[in-house]
Each structure stands twice: as structure tokens, then as C-alpha cells.
Design a protein that fits this description.
It is found in: Membrane. It holds the Pfam family TatA_B_E. The structure is a single chain. This protein has helices at residues 6-20, 25-56, 61-101. The protein is mainly alpha-helical.
Length: 108
């Protein structure tokens, strides 16, 4: 959790206990919980506004998925073409070298 170990968490709890006292800790925890809920609601509202704006402009999740799928397929096609050409060129170079020098044998 946030890169904090068990010992560090206990130390933080001890400092909080010293700062606020045992009677204020439930109130502080309740306030922090409410703040976290408000933050979560605000981020969800922002997400929904972004999705609404995208849908109004014709960019819903389905069309974006189709668009990225098209891009991915084109990229994969180009990669396959380039890789195939490279393998064919390497094989031709190997044949040319063997034709010139003959099979290379290692000497011990």
C-alpha cells in the first residue's frame, strides 16, 4: 500500500495517536473517509463528462475500439512485411556468402 511497510505504518499510527489523541482519532478517520468519498465522486463525475463529450462528438468506446483495432492491424501488417523482407534478405545474403566462400568449418 503506497510503498509503506508494516513497521512504517505502525510508526505513522503512533504519531497520529500522539498528535490527535485517542478521542479524536475516530472523528479524523470519519472526516478522511468523507473526503475520500467526495474525491471518488468528483473523479467519477469528470469521467462521465469526458465520456458524454466524446459521445457527442461521435467517439464512443465502440468506435474507438474499432479505430484502434484498424490501426493495430495495419501496424501488424507492416511489421510482418518488414520482418518477412528482412528474413528473406538474410537468407539470400547467407546463400551468397556460402557461394563465395563455401561452407565455413571451424578449426580446433
Amino acid at each position: 500500500m503506497f510503498g509503506i511497510g508494516g513497521g512504517e505504518l505502525v510508526f505513522i499510527m503512533f504519531i497520529v495517536l500522539l498528535l490527535f489523541g485517542s478521542d479524536k482519532i475516530p472523528e479524523v478517520a470519519r472526516t478522511m473517509g468523507k473526503a475520500m468519498a467526495q474525491l471518488k465522486n468528483a473523479t467519477n463525475d469528470i469521467k462521465s463528462e469526458i465520456q458524454k463529450g466524446a459521445e457527442e462528438n461521435g467517439l464512443d468506446s465502440k468506435s474507438l475500439t474499432e479505430m484502434t483495432g484498424g490501426f493495430n492491424s495495419q501496424i501488424n501488417k507492416v511489421k510482418d512485411d518488414l520482418l518477412g523482407d528482412s528474413v528473406a534478405q538474410a537468407a539470400k545474403m547467407k546463400e551468397d556468402i556460402e557461394d563465395i566462400a563455401g561452407p565455413v568449418k571451424r578449426s580446433r
